Amino acid sequence: MKALVYNGPGQRSWQEVPDPVIQDPEDAIVRVDAVTICGTDLHILKGDVPTVQPGRILGHEAVGTITAVGSGVRGVAIGDRVLISCISSCGRCEYCRQGHYGQCLGGGGWILGHLIDGTQAEQVRVPFADRSVYKLPDNVTDEAAVLLADILPTSYEVGVLNGKVAPGDTVVIVGAGPIGLAAIATSKLFSPTRIVVVDAADSRRKAALLRGADLALDPDEDVEATVRELTGGLGADVAIEAVGIPATFELCTRVVRPGGRVANVGVHGAAVTLHLEDLWIKNVTITTGLVDTWTTPRLLAMVAAGRLELSELITHRFGLHEMQDAYDVFSRPAVTGALKVALFSQAGVE
Q1: What pLDDT digit, counting tens, does each position of 280-331 carry?
Q2: Where in the chain are the domains?
Q3: Could you give the 3-state DSSP secondary structure of residue 13?
Q4: Among 1-5, 136-140, 332-336, whose mean pLDDT is lowest?
Q5: How many Cα atoms are found within 13 Å in the side-chain-facing hemisphere of 350?
């Protein structure tokens, strides 16, 4: 089969690799029908995630059709159309029993495209299939479902829920990429008074306004003064960091009010200065986290019911064999206007 292989920082190739096989009774083999690229994949290619070794097939978000299952799989069967979660769960360790699947000690967590071969391929082996894939309703398209693999639960759990967005809040979202835009949609579930988005790209600021933000600012503007003016001098109730660089995290800590919450979602590859000399007296709560995907069934139900619509986040579509072109487009959003890209196999279209 063909797959996108990481060959070290700055190097990737679409190449022939061996087909995956069942290695454990709880495995499933899934034919990839639709897949996408994550900002985390770009961090890997930059060398920001050294635990990813050269030779690894990248990708942790996909929709597909099960072609084989191990003897221990009970909840899904050959022929089922499924969402592949970005997080795998053994279901037995202490963290999984608490619902913290991202911290799984039994061989799960974020492993696809990280510690084992991932989804940017014609086929993928999914461990712990009963707890790591979700059967899809017929009325949820592959294009809509692939957004449930990562960006929707990540924005919801690590951004909105960790940030404790509540009715009447002022929410500042720094970063209007796919995670930031998904955070707009999932924040609106809690009826905040206003959502302010900050992004350097004009195209992404426009996208944020189209998708429900009340105000979109360039970071070169006086963001802190604008937020204070909007809030009677108080600051944001919640600041969600959705980029992963020091400047954006530090901006979040400056715009949040005393007693407010900073929810960091971005993947950081460099050290960030935590200005405790300013923050210690402000009762600010800072949260970090890897998504656990415990909300995936809830989000899938909302998408199936038409209560949550995010398919318009996909701006570019490719065939699976055009993986290299898709990476080129996704990695240059300021030039291409890309938000989220989706790739489809011919088998999935038939």
Answers
A1: 999 999 999 999 999 999 999 999 999 998 868 899 999 999 999 999 999 9
A2: 2-150+293-349, 154-287
A3: strand
A4: 332-336
A5: 6
Same fold, 2-150+293-349 and 154-287: no
Tokens of 314: 């996909």
Angstrom distance (rounded) from CA 183 to CA 324: 28
Query: For 172-227, how does the pLDDT look when each residue is reduced to its tens digit (9 = 90+)?
Result: 999 999 999 999 999 999 999 999 999 999 999 999 999 999 999 999 999 999 99
* Assigned fold of 2-150+293-349: Quinone Oxidoreductase; Chain A, domain 1 (3.90.180)
State the angle between helix axes of 202-210 and 178-187 in degrees (0 to 180), rounded to the nearest 10.
20
Rounded Cα gap, residues 346 and 350, in angstroms: 6
Beta pairing, strands 2-6 & 56-57: antiparallel
Q: Which residues contact 184 (CB under 8 A, 6 or more apart)?
A: 173, 195, 197, 208, 211, 212, 213
Closest CA to 320 of 34, 23, 109, 22: 34
Q: Give first-to-last CA distance, the chain, whole Å.
A: 19
Q: How many CA atoms lie within 13 A of 287 on its CB side?
A: 19
Q: What count of other Cβ atoms lies within 10 Å of the Cβ of residue 254?
A: 16
Amino acid at 5: V
For 226, what's the count of Cα atoms within 13 Å in the CB-facing half-sphere? 18
Q: Please tell me the class of the 154-287 domain.
A: alpha beta
Q: Judge whether 261 and 164 are in contact, CB under 8 Å.
A: yes
